[in-house]
Amino acid sequence: MGIRHDQGIVLRSYPFGEADKVVVLLSPNHGKLRTVAKGIRKTKSRFGGRLEPFSHVDLVLYEGRNLDTITQVAMIEAFHQLRSDLDRVVAAGTMVEVADAVAQENESSVRLFLLLQRGLRALETGPAHPDLVTAYLLKAAETIGVAPALDQCAGCGRSDGLNRFSFGAGGVVCDQCRTPGAYSLRAGLTGYLAALAGADLAELPGADDKFSGEARGVARRFVEYHLERQIQSMAVLDV
Ligand SMILES: [Zn+2]
Prior knowledge:
Elements: E1 3-16, E2 20-27, E3 31-37, E4 56-62, E5 68-77, H1 86-102, H2 110-125, H3 132-143, E6 164-166, E7 171-173, E8 183-184, H4 189-198, H5 209-227
Parallel strand pairs: 3-5
Antiparallel strand pairs: 1-2, 1-4, 2-3, 4-5, 6-7, 6-8
Helix pairs in contact: 1-2, 1-3, 2-3, 3-4, 3-5
Residues 153, 155-156, 158, 173-174, 176-177 line the site of zinc ion (ZN).
């Protein structure tokens, strides 16, 4: 046990003891970190607002038996702009919730970290693209090895007649491979999803109102199916 340095994006925090909080972060090298910020709930905390969700911070940690204690915090990237707009805060909230759900402790998470960082940066530069969260969900699935099949049938590999999406089979399926409960897709949606899965979060193709809502629903249900839990923050998006 001793002092060590790390960095991470704050995912969430919760009260701990009288005046402390447990702050959960995503570190590129160590995955999900649970740390203690002592005295952070006092009016004059030395941490200021630097440990709010979405902040990318540099940390000095004192290693403990169970949880490490934060002794110093320096801001790397604050994401001030996205915090000024409720739509962007909701989108960022979904991104950190999903990262929190898929990240493991004590495991390198470089790809997931970079995905979250790119997502937050896309929100920081302007209004949320209607398909940003959808693309993020598809890419998050890829980082944990469950990227949905979108170009070929998840059952037999053929690349035409892909009109249904099967959560159990892991992507689009043809009429021969359809499973009970496979979800019927609007014509063109398969290609729309594939384009989002392959695009850079900072340079997404133009959104199409005809597809955006359904694409988000498919991506959400797919990720929820694999996580075996609901993405709570997305309920706000779908009222
Ligand atoms: Zn098939």
